[in-house]
């Protein structure tokens, strides 16, 4: 934990800031991109949200209290930015975020950055039908293998509630996969 505190000091120090931020990008750009992409689904949208996420991280780093890990704090920002992005895009298109997600899944086949097969497309459709919180929990656990304890810090939800959400999501997905 001391190492992380020193790293944060380097990020805040004008003399070491550029080098420290390059390390931050190097270490977290890829995992944050995949986390964001799992929520917004579209590559270009994920790039935009990732950029917004790093701007916010840089902008608010001085306010980071260290109550959670830097990783968890950045994932929380990425999650919130992703949800905000989806909601704003849905509003601009005069639809709900659920309908937008469903439309994006339908368009995945044409996305050159999506290399999944029919089963993976079906899985994405099943996930898109879940309530927002269950989607997040399922994607974070299933795709990114994030521990419940870390997820709890990121989402501000108890471990027990997260386990229950994952269980319900997995059951709904299993039912969808069997019946469609």
From TrEMBL:
<dbReference type="GO" id="GO:0003677">
    <property type="term" value="F:DNA binding"/>
</dbReference>
<dbReference type="InterPro" id="IPR014284">
    <property type="entry name" value="RNA_pol_sigma-70_dom"/>
</dbReference>
<dbReference type="InterPro" id="IPR013325">
    <property type="entry name" value="RNA_pol_sigma_r2"/>
</dbReference>
<dbReference type="InterPro" id="IPR007627">
    <property type="entry name" value="RNA_pol_sigma70_r2"/>
</dbReference>
<dbReference type="InterPro" id="IPR013249">
    <property type="entry name" value="RNA_pol_sigma70_r4_t2"/>
</dbReference>
<dbReference type="GO" id="GO:0006352">
    <property type="term" value="P:DNA-templated transcription initiation"/>
</dbReference>
<dbReference type="GO" id="GO:0016987">
    <property type="term" value="F:sigma factor activity"/>
</dbReference>
<dbReference type="InterPro" id="IPR013324">
    <property type="entry name" value="RNA_pol_sigma_r3/r4-like"/>
</dbReference>
<dbReference type="Pfam" id="PF04542">
    <property type="entry name" value="Sigma70_r2"/>
</dbReference>
<dbReference type="InterPro" id="IPR036388">
    <property type="entry name" value="WH-like_DNA-bd_sf"/>
</dbReference>
<comment type="similarity">
    <text>Belongs to the sigma-70 factor family. ECF subfamily.</text>
</comment>
<keyword id="KW-0731">Sigma factor</keyword>
<protein>
    <submittedName>
        <fullName>Sigma-70 family RNA polymerase sigma factor</fullName>
    </submittedName>
</protein>
<dbReference type="InterPro" id="IPR039425">
    <property type="entry name" value="RNA_pol_sigma-70-like"/>
</dbReference>
<keyword id="KW-0804">Transcription</keyword>
<feature type="domain" description="RNA polymerase sigma-70 region 2">
    <location>
        <begin position="25"/>
        <end position="91"/>
    </location>
</feature>
<feature type="domain" description="RNA polymerase sigma factor 70 region 4 type 2">
    <location>
        <begin position="121"/>
        <end position="173"/>
    </location>
</feature>
<dbReference type="Pfam" id="PF08281">
    <property type="entry name" value="Sigma70_r4_2"/>
</dbReference>
<keyword id="KW-0805">Transcription regulation</keyword>
């Amino acid at each position: 934990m001391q190492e992380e505190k020193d790293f944060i000091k380097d990020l805040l120090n004008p003399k070491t800031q550029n080098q420290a931020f390059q390390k931050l990008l190097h270490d977290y750009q890829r995992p944050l991109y995949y986390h964001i992409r799992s929520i917004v689904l579209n590559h270009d949208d994920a790039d935009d949200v990732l950029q917004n996420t790093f701007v916010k991280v840089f902008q608010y780093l001085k306010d980071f209290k260290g109550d959670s890990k830097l990783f968890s704090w950045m994932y929380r920002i990425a999650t919130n930015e992703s949800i905000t992005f989806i909601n704003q895009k849905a509003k601009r298109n005069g639809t709900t975020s659920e309908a937008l997600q469903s439309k994006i899944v339908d368009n995945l086949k044409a996305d050159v950055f999506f290399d999944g097969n029919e089963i993976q497309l079906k899985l994405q459709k099943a996930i898109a039908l879940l309530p927002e919180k269950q989607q997040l929990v399922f994607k974070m656990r299933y795709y990114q293998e994030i521990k419940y304890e870390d997820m709890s810090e990121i989402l501000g939800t108890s471990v027990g509630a997260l386990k229950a959400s994952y269980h319900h999501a997995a059951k709904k997905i299993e039912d969808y996969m069997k019946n469609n």
